[in-house]
Write a structure and sequence with these properties.
Blueprint: H1 8-26, E1 42-45, E2 48-51, E3 56-62, E4 65-70, H2 76-85, E5 93-94, E6 99-102, H3 108-145, H4 151-184
Antiparallel strand pairs: 1-2, 3-4, 4-6, 5-6
Length: 186
């Protein structure tokens, strides 16, 4: 890192952008059971919307089955309704104590749709990282204009920033490849 220009804030923001993309990828359903599929499900309980994971424990007893165990047995109907009404296309089965959610096979057409979706999510992440770079470049140019750094310091800081940007875009691309391979898996 350049001693004159501190890029830690930019790096922290870029890291956040990569984490956001990975979280979004986790919510994209594959043919395999994964507790993060239910991360976005919110349950109408106690007069407000509450994240499912704060009302129940979620486990994977089999590769194609999720098991949801409510902390409060009285909330089981609300949890079942929230899962059924989510956009995940899942069909929960309630036995009074536990909700079992079989994860159906993905059709080839649905796989292609999901791959397009994760490509779009990855591109949004790349744009976010580039926007952080753009903001930081403006700040560096401003420091140069105000005479706080030299031209050499400006150039070094811009090179460091570009290396940082490339590193975080590569992390998004690696996460995309991993998710795409997961979606193609039959």
């Amino acid at each position: 890192m350049s001693e004159v220009v501190d890029l830690t804030a930019a790096e922290r923001r870029m890291k956040g952008a990569v984490e956001a993309v990975k979280r979004e990828f986790g919510a994209v359903r594959t043919g395999r059971a994964n507790p993060s599929l239910l991360d976005r499900v919110e349950v109408e309980a106690y007069g407000t919307k509450v994240p499912l994971k704060s009302l129940a424990s979620i486990s994977v007893p089999e590769p194609r089955l999720l098991s949801v165990t409510p902390f409060d047995p009285n909330s089981i109907k609300d949890i079942e309704r929230a899962i059924r009404n989510s956009e995940l296309g899942l069909n929960p089965q309630n036995d009074g104590k536990i909700i079992r959610i079989p994860i159906p096979e993905l059709t080839e057409e649905r796989r292609r749709e999901l791959i397009r979706l994760v490509h779009h999510m990855a591109e949004e992440g790349r744009v976010a990282v580039r926007n952080i770079r753009r903001d930081e470049m403006k700040d560096i140019a401003e420091l140069k204009k105000m005479g706080e750094i030299s031209e050499d310091d400006e150039r070094r800081a811009e090179e460091e920033l570009q290396k940082l940007t490339n590193r975080y875009i590569n992390r998004i691309d690696a996460a995309l490849e991993e998710k795409e391979a997961e979606l193609r898996e039959v």
